[in-house]
């Protein structure tokens, strides 16, 4: 099973040498802080997370990780998945539930595969060794603005992933060479020329550097 971690190009040498490490004592970049002892992975949004971590004019870095090379006892669900499920079920404020779930994530550990399936995200406690990284992708969004826009502002919810999973996952799989064509664009039905443009985009690898490890 494959999942992906998005970050910035400037961290590539350190990642290749020492692997992916949890943020530890570094300040979380999110308003609702993530777990400091976890490395977060995604099958649908890694380029969005890379965009958040990157500086202006810096290429996005996404690493492909073979989950079968990791210790299954150290996988956890993304706390957003559990928090959204509880908040929707009990009609509670999401931020309050998120803080509780984050602090008690061990109670929900057995839901990590469901988190990956239903939200597209999960996390791993501790360091991900470089040997588990199969390849990486460097993406210059300034060269491919259409793709960059597609990655820029997803709605990361259980409901949205249920409807848009094919689009998000398909884009990641195409970026990493696992699919020959980009997933269908919703504007194709409104504009026939859009389909022709998207087919050309599928054959264009400009701005994308893919390296196997």
Counted up, domains total: 1
Beta-strand percentage range: 15-25%
Outline the low-pLDDT stretches. none
Please list the strands of the largest sheet in the order they lie side by side.
1-3-6-7
Given the helix and strand composition, which structural class is it?
A: alpha+beta
Question: Rounded to an integer, what's the Rg over CA atoms?
Answer: 17 Å
How many angstroms separate the termini? 17 Å
Oligomer, anyone?
single chain
Q: Tally the helices: what do you get?
A: 8
The 3D shape can be described as globular
H/E element order: EHEHEEHHHEEHHHE
How many β-strand stretches?
7
**Proportion of helical residues:** 25-40%
Largest sheet, in brief, is: 4 strands, antiparallel
The residue-averaged pLDDT reads 92
Could you please describe the fold and organization of this structure?
This protein is an alpha+beta fold. It has one domain (1-213). It contains 8 helices and 7 strands. The strands form 2 sheets. The chain has a 4-stranded antiparallel beta sheet with strand order 1-3-6-7. Helix 3 (79-90) packs across helix 4. The longest helix is centred in the last third of the chain and has 18 residues, at 158-175. It is globular, with a radius of gyration of 17 Å. The mean pLDDT is 92.
């Amino acid at each position: 099973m494959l999942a992906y971690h998005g970050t910035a190009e400037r961290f590539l040498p350190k990642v290749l040498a020492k692997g992916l490490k949890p943020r530890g004592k570094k300040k979380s970049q999110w308003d609702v802080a993530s777990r400091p002892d976890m490395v977060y992975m995604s099958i649908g949004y890694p380029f969005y997370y890379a965009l958040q971590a990157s500086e202006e004019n810096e290429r996005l870095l996404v690493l492909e990780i073979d989950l079968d090379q990791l210790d299954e006892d150290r996988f956890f669900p993304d706390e957003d998945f559990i928090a959204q499920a509880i908040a929707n079920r009990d009609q509670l404020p999401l931020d309050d539930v998120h803080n509780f779930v984050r602090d008690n994530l061990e109670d929900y550990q057995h839901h990590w595969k469901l988190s990956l399936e239903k939200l597209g995200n999960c996390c791993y406690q501790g360091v991900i060794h470089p040997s588990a990284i199969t390849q990486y992708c460097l993406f210059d969004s300034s060269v491919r603005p259409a793709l960059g826009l597609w990655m820029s502002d997803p709605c990361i919810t259980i409901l949205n992933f249920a409807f848009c999973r094919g689009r998000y996952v398909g884009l990641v799989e195409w970026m990493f060479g696992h699919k020959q064509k980009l997933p269908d664009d919703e504007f194709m039905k409104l504009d026939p020329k859009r389909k022709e443009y998207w087919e050309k985009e599928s054959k264009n690898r400009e701005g994308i550097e893919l390296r196997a490890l």
